[in-house]
Design brief:
Number of helices: 16
Number of strands: 11
Strand content: 15-25%
Distance between the termini: 44 Å
CATH topology of the largest domain: Cytochrome Bc1 Complex, Chain A, domain 1
CATH superfamily of the largest domain: Metalloenzyme, LuxS/M16 peptidase-like
Shape: globular
Strand order of the largest sheet: 1-2-6-3-5-4
CATH class of the largest domain: Alpha Beta
Oligomer: single chain
Number of domains: 2
Structural class: alpha+beta
CATH architecture of the largest domain: 2-Layer Sandwich
Helix content: 40-55%
């Protein structure tokens, strides 16, 4: 197989990790900084602090005192820039024309190491974040997956909202934020990925701007999730007068390092990952029960989940649940066809090719692996894992994951309580007759 993607990984003198990924046929470059910090590292009082810090690093540095000083420098060269916080990592990136790489390196290093955490800006940003939380909660299509993980990971940091709550956000002090920042934002915790049109001078430029030494990180641990079946709710509902019922049902699945991860991903594509998938055809195309229905997989260092999500007419919710559970039973009993497996593998290969043309996707691919996994694979190596998956392995993955006793359900709509949705799911399972 021709090597299309190459990378170089090295430890810098300050113990940070640099990954350089040359991408042919592009005039752009992406610089991405990633840290192992997110909502699962927080205690209940700190909930939302990782996300809050992400906002504050755009609020001014010692040499660029205001948000406008930062944004104007990037806007005048047409750069794309943003940041994101997840449950287990936070990333900051700038994508620009390749001849602006020094600006990207200078600005990112300045933001991450020299932010002021201005108290006035911090207090103003509390209102911004609370409104962001309200926006997500007002939008069922955004909020439903959060509600599902609250149910599945009940009582654990993985089940908390990444953005926190209005109460925890408003209670944050500058001292609390700076202390938390120092725990995690140390060079030894940092992965820096540079992808795109780069050359032999790139590493020298990186070392020019990322020379800062730091303390030994103290905030690198997280609480592992241990499922206590008896204490976890089977379902959770959020009452809202909506025209549609928004539903997620799902199961515990596999973590990042699982040997069956490729089989689970292929199972997802076949079951509900495309517009020709089983659930899309059976629920939407044949019966018109939903406009939106799909499945997905979330993975973390120690756990993961497989979910099915749909927007449904409440009066036909029981019928839809029955069809969904029937499809789960079928795939457990009969497995998948050779044609379905080939299509799923071709789908993966095609998406890899399209996505990896983008330097920002390549930067994130390598940074996430270096940060969260035991080894860094090239896209070619990952595709080889998918090519080796057999139909039998996909069936085994279905048998392992789709245990109805472990199913959790979240719903947004005009429900009186969660017992209503639990009863529907139980009846749907009982009545499938497969």
């Amino acid at each position: 197989m021709v090597k299309l993607f190459m990378f170089h990984k090295e430890k810098l003198q300050n113990k940070s990790t640099l990954i350089t990924i040359p991408v042919k046929g592009t005039e752009a470059v992406t610089v991405l900084m990633m840290f192992p910090v997110g909502s699962r590292y927080e205690n209940a009082e700190q909930n939302g602090l990782s996300h809050f810090i992400e906002h504050m690093l755009f609020k001014g540095t010692l040499s660029r005192p205001t948000t406008l000083d930062i944004s104007k420098e990037l806007d005048k060269v047409g750069a794309e820039y943003n940041a994101y916080t997840s449950r287990d990592h936070t990333g900051y990136y700038i994508k620009a024309a390749a001849d602006k790489i020094e600006l990207a390196l200078d600005l990112l290093s300045d933001m991450v190491w020299n932010s002021k955490f201005n108290e006035t800006e911090l207090e103003k940003e509390k209102g911004v974040i609370v409104e962001e939380l309200n926006m997500y909660k007002d939008n069922p299509t955004m909020y439903i997956e959060q509600l599902f993980e609250e149910t599945l990971y009940h009582g654990h940091p993985l089940g908390r909202d990444i953005g926190g709550t209005a109460k925890t956000v408003r209670a944050v002090s500058r001292a609390q934020m700076v202390s938390y920042y120092k725990d995690f934002y140390q060079p030894a915790n940092m992965i820096l990925a540079v992808a795109g049109k780069i050359d032999g001078q790139t590493a020298k430029l990186v070392k020019k701007y990322f020379f800062k030494n730091g303390a030994v990180p103290s905030g690198s641990r997280f609480e592992k999730f241990l499922c206590k079946e008896k204490s976890c709710p089977r379902a959770k509902v959020f009452f809202k007068e909506t025209d549609q019922t928004h539903l997620v049902l799902g199961f515990p699945a596999v973590n990042y390092e699982s040997s069956i991860s490729p089989a689970v991903s292929l199972l997802n594509i076949i079951l509900g990952g495309t517009m020709s998938s089983r659930l899309f055809v059976e629920v939407r195309e044949k019966r018109g029960l939903a406009y939106m229905i799909h499945s997905g997989v979330n993975q973390y260092q120690d756990v993961g989940n497989f979910f099915i999500r749909a927007g449904l007419d409440k009066t036909r919710l029981a019928e839809a649940l029955k069809i969904i559970i029937l499809e789960l039973r079928k795939i457990k009993k009969d497995g998948v066809t050779a044609e379905e497996l080939k299509m799923a593998k071709d789908n993966v290969a095609g998406r890899f090719v399209l996505q990896l043309e983008d330097s920002s996707v390549q930067a994130e691919w390598y940074a996430k692996q270096a940060l969260l996994m035991k080894r860094t694979r090239t896209p070619e190596e990952e595709l080889q894992r998918y090519k080796k998956v057999t139909a039998g392995e996909v069936k085994k993955a279905a048998l392992k994951i789709f245990d109805i006793k472990k199913m959790r359900v979240a719903a947004i709509g005009a429900f009186k309580n969660s017992k209503e949705i639990v009863k529907m799911a139980w009846l749907a399972d009982r009545d499938t007759g497969y």
